[in-house]
Amino acid sequence: MPITFLHFSDVHLGYQQYGDRERFNDFGRAFLKAVDSAVAKQVDFVLISGDLFHKSAIDPPTLLQAANGIDSLRNAGISVVAIAGNHDRAKYRDRYSWLDYLAERGYIALLSPSFEEAGIVLKPWDGHEGAYLDFGPIRVIGVPYLGSSIKTVVAELPPALAAIRDENVRFNILMMHAGLEGEMLHITGELTQNELNSLQKHIDYLALGHFHKPFERQDWIFNPGSLETCGMDERRWKGGSYFVTVDADNDPMHTFRHIKSSRRPFHQLSIKVDEYKEPVSLYDGIRASLENGIFQWTQEDQKPVVQINLEGILGFDRGDLDLKFIEDLVKESISPLLVRVKNNTRPVEFEISTSEHYTRPQLERGILQDLIRRDSRFRGAAEQLADLMVQVKEMALIGSAPEAIVETVRLGLALAKTAGLNTTTGLNTTTLAEEE
């Protein structure tokens, strides 16, 4: 008789993303929708491959979300098998997590091997602890997040798996919270395909979690991806869950289908600021992009999370750029759930005209004035301070006495003050003398 299960991971209950309470609710809703799917499909059990919670210290509403979902599964006669991920595992000093609490209360079977002097030991789940649990001809083994130690554990697993071989068990599932090298190019040091291949003789279905990107390999390695979007860089990933049917009398013994979760949409707009020479024109450009319908969704869709990235060289004073105004502009134009504005711009570079010939001192003085004007504290005396810097440099190059340099600085600063230098800048000739 076929046995079915639902495999998901990286639920991250309790994540109040960007400090927004509605995002907290989104993660709870995503979990409950996965639960509803399991109940509707009348699966025999559910696998949660780590990170049920976003952090080890959770608040009562987060625990309530978890308990409500698991209650629905229990009431439908569906068992829940879980492993600890890096987010929800107990801290070293605590040694007891909220997953342990759920396991002790009989809500979940929380699987983990025993690590003894003789090596890895896989014991059956006894209601409190253990590494594996059987559902008829199916055996589920669990390995929690172990960081860099996972490579050593994977290398030692084959003999441990062989030691618990049972002729009545015909389909073996291994749950692990670990990444696979090559799936996320900016992350290194994860398990390689060759390292996992040593398990294939013993394992029919590898139920991974940890990477929020969904992927599958060779019809035996499965990573469902996170149920909700955990960051703007994940907006294109369609995470969800795997619905798997196992029939030990068939070849192949299992069939699977990835079910994409319904997520709040995330949109990103990059604005090149180079062409805008004043703030108003930049704001008008952003407004025009938004009104041209660059982001599309219907009234039935959830309001999106929108991020505006400002890129390029800013053609006006950075202090005149009002990020809050841009945020309000986006809210007014398209009514998203929330807006984030990231300022990745660089200040205008030195513009040196090639139509005239400048001497080296003139070029130096011009660049120094440009640098000084960027700081509002010194802007009013930019010319005087630039002249002073050039003069001090020339005195140092010809070997002038430190006392003479200090006196020049003192007189130069006095002149700069009359030109508008902010006297609270903290510049003093004593410090300058010590530096000389």
pLDDT under 50 segments (min length 5)?
423-436
Instruction: Give the termini distance in whole angstroms.
Output: 87 Å
Strand content: 15-25%
Tally of helical runs:
11
- From the alpha carbons, calculate the radius of gyration and give it in angstroms: 31 Å
CATH architecture of the largest domain: 4-Layer Sandwich
Query: What's the overall geometry?
Result: elongated
Question: How does the major sheet shape up?
Answer: 6 strands, mixed
What name does CATH use for the topology of the largest domain?
Purple Acid Phosphatase, chain A, domain 2
Number of domains: 3
In brief:
The protein is an alpha/beta fold and 436 residues long.
What would your notes on this structure say?
With 436 residues, the protein is of the alpha/beta class. It has three domains: 3-260, Purple Acid Phosphatase, chain A, domain 2 (4-Layer Sandwich); 266-347; 360-435, no CATH class. The protein is built from eleven helices and 19 strands. The strands form five sheets. A six-stranded mixed sheet has the order 4-3-2-1-13-14, with helices on one face. Helix 1 (21-40) links the parallel strand 1 and strand 2. Helix 6 (279-291) packs parallel to helix 7 (323-334) and helix 8 packs across helix 9. It is elongated, with a radius of gyration of 31 Å. The relative contact order is 0.09. Residues 423-436 have low confidence and may be disordered.
